[in-house]
């Protein structure tokens, strides 16, 4: 059982975890090298009217430029073009500033980059690389369609308080990772002493604390590979593929514990909580609101369904809540077969 260390963490607005990355839009479009002549490129564009652009790569398969069909076919109509340029390298016709995305780039960040392009380049599409190596090309229409569908689905199932994905997207994301046989970590976050806080400070203040929890978690995750969802109430689920997942969880807990202090009255901070009366009229002391997390590590073959992970998460969260203050508990047991 581990306790969060008291460290500062910047707070950001809640964001959707992104399961969709640039690699999901890759089409296997062959690239050319400097050894290919301008005449060969023109014939390629003539033979395939649906081909808008071709990537030019170096000997290490790094993208160094883009050949655009409209520009090159227009050049081909110039007088003496074939005599002067046709046999020369296609690099004489390329634009050395192609639009290139890494395979791990999120579709939302891609769409923002595309929105800043000159309109005449929107027909080009884009190229995708992984570790700098050319993987293929993508079409702008595919990007726009994927982003639009993702936003519609996210909005349909989003929690209205935080606008984070709800139960359906959470289960879908976990199922995708299970099907793909990926290693990942699921963390079930829950606010401790939240109901007494609502009773004392009111539901509006409670909503503010829930939004604070969501923004703290969003700030602590890697949006390129991690996912954050809001189950409901004060319960959140984070799905982490980051190698430094444990440090991220620790920072989330520490960041929330620091940020939530501004939501308490000074006298409550000094007393470490507040006193209320239960239904029997007995005074009960409640500690300050804090954050607990039950954590389950998932390896390929451990589970077939998200529901199988849920029971382990609930038990791990119970263990975390046994500790006073923000804490997390990692279920390190082998899953039951």
Secondary structure: elements and pairs:
Blueprint: E1 2-3, H1 38-47, E2 53-57, E3 63-68, H2 69-75, H3 81-86, E4 100-102, H4 107-115, E5 126-130, E6 133-138, H5 140-157, H6 167-179, E7 184-192, H7 194-201, H8 203-220, E8 227-232, E9 235-240, H9 245-259, H10 266-271, E10 273-277, E11 283-287, E12 290-298, H11 306-321, E13 327-331
Parallel strand pairs: 4-5, 12-13
Antiparallel strand pairs: 1-13, 2-3, 5-6, 7-9, 7-12, 8-9, 10-11
Helix pairs in contact: 4-5, 7-8, 8-9
Give the domain tally. 2
Q: In CATH terms, what is the fold-level topology of the largest domain?
A: Alpha-Beta Plaits
> Which runs of at least 5 residues are low in confidence (pLDDT < 50)?
1-19
Shape by Cα distribution: elongated
Structural class: alpha+beta
| SSE ordering | EHEEHHEHEEHHEHHEEHHEEEHE
Helix count from the secondary structure assignment: 11
- CATH C-level category of the largest domain: Alpha Beta
The CATH superfamily of the largest domain is identified as Reverse transcriptase/Diguanylate cyclase domain
Number of strands: 13
**CA radius of gyration:** 26 Å
Largest sheet: 6 strands, mixed
User: Which second-level CATH architecture of the largest domain applies?
Assistant: 2-Layer Sandwich
Measured as a percent range, the helix fraction is 25-40%
Terminal-residue CA separation: 25 Å
